[in-house]
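**User:** Here is a favour to ask of a fellow structure person. Please take any protein you like and set down a full record of it. No explanation is needed for now; the record alone will do.

**Assistant:**
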Amino acid sequence: MITRSLTSSVKHVWSKDGALDRASPAFDLAAYHRDGDMAHLPCLPGCAPTVFTLARLPRRTFVYCADLDGFRRVCEAVAYGVREVAGFVVDGQELSLAHQKSDLGQRLTEASMDALFDPDLFGELAGRVLELSQIDPTRGQG
């Protein structure tokens, strides 16, 4: 049996987040990606990671992104798949993401995209969004 949620979201911590204690024996990024348990991502004392809320892409949006070339695909997957962020500070202020309606659904505004932009971060977020948009029996979806 295949089971999936069309509305669920997942929390994601960037693998390069400076708050992560990579020297800790408990640090296990692969395990975190498998089960989402933050216990696999210990943090340095007094630090907390930035947490992104990501959602799967609906079919039309996935097809749109898949038809794009290169980094444009990455940017559009981020625009449509990132829902929220906590702990991301820009110019001393906690970033509050803004979305706008498009023909394919809600997407981040250009200002939000610009505030979040980092090529490595976008690459990782887009990969996760596209992964979430597929059925995967290893994640209990089949």
Q: What stands out?
A: Strands lie at 9-12, 51-55, 82-86, 89-90, 93-94, 99-102, 105-108. The longest strand covers residues 51-55. The chain has a mean pLDDT of 92.
